[in-house]
Amino acid sequence: MASIDKIKAPIKGELQHFQNFFGEVMHTRVPLLTLITKYVVKNKGKQMRPLFVFLSARLLGEATESTYRAAALIELLHTATLVHDDVVDEANLRRNVFTINALWKNKVAVLVGDFLLSKGMLLALENKEYRLLEIVSRATKQMSEGELLQIEKARRMDINEEVYFDIIRQKTATLIGAATACGAASAGASPQLVDEFWKMGENIGIAFQIKDDLLDYGSADTGKANGNDLKEKKMTLPLIYMLRNLSKNERQKIILKIKYRSGNAAVRKDIIERVRKSGGIDYSKEKMKEYLQKALDNLNAFPDGEIKTALGELIHYSINRKK
């Protein structure tokens, strides 16, 4: 698997320019916001979603000023949703770094998330980027609906596979779909082609989320399972597979354990072992591979070249990661 630095190499210049561009976009005259936005920028991860934007645009031509705005829009939306998610989840750490709500409390964190979203909308409107704004607004709506659907279903723990895929498509996949679609739109693609890029990103995002499910079970050479999803009572694909192959009575017993005893490490370990023995891990791996192949099939419609190769490697990298 190619390293992230190798994947970035064909668009190294664009990414360097983007760092400066994004810093300018985040500028504010409010001292507290300046402090927090600098903290956010300093602790950004691999910024994979802007990578999807730039590589999608370059697949169709050259990166334009619209491409930089598209990447900024996606990064602003992604960061805002993470900030708000940390408040909702009462999380104090993300990637072993203190969250904004942990350092500055919930009220500030919510307002910072709102600030980031409004920055994105203004960036689009001030530059008449209506296509980009439409794509990002569509993604924001779907992400909110997916989150609420998951909350609604989690209360009864009656998520079947169809509902599961509906949730992850909206919650996770839609943002990567927006990234690839925005990249294409910024390069002047037709509405039909933008939709094709959206589908490619969605397929990547679904495979990405299934990989997250697998990581929680310590599969695919990731070492010891942590069971955090079980602890948070999340219905992931390996668990759904196991439950649907149990008798009604056995299924109810497991669901009650998850509802009322998932805080117990021994209970989680027992459920994880049952999931593994049920074939849920292997089933989920096969589903992940299906969506990975769909994304690669979307990509294969384009001529060969270093950008296509880099995008293909990014797709593999995002799904074959170890954490």
Overall structural domain count:
1
Named CATH architecture:
Orthogonal Bundle
Number of helices: 15
Helix content: over 70%
Q: Order of strands across the widest beta sheet?
A: 1-2
Rg: 20 Å
User: What is the strand tally?
Assistant: 2
Q: Major sheet, described briefly?
A: 2 strands, antiparallel
CATH topology: Farnesyl Diphosphate Synthase
Oligomer: single chain
Q: What are the secondary-structure elements, in order, as H or E?
A: HHHHHEEHHHHHHHHHH
The N- to C-terminal Cα distance equals: 15 Å
Residue stretches low in confidence (pLDDT < 50, at least 5 long) are: 219-224
The percentage of residues in β strands lies in under 5%
Structural class: mainly alpha
Which CATH C-level class is it? Mainly Alpha
Average pLDDT confidence is: 91
CATH homologous superfamily - what is it?
A: Farnesyl Diphosphate Synthase
Characterize the overall form: globular
Write up what this structure looks like.
With 323 residues, the protein is mostly helical. The protein has a single domain, classed as Farnesyl Diphosphate Synthase (Orthogonal Bundle). The chain has helices at residues 4-8, 12-25, 31-42, 48-60, 65-88, 100-126, 130-156, 161-186, 191-216, 228-231, 237-244, 248-261, 265-278, 280-299, 306-319, and strands spanning 93-94, 97-98. It is globular and about 60 Å long.
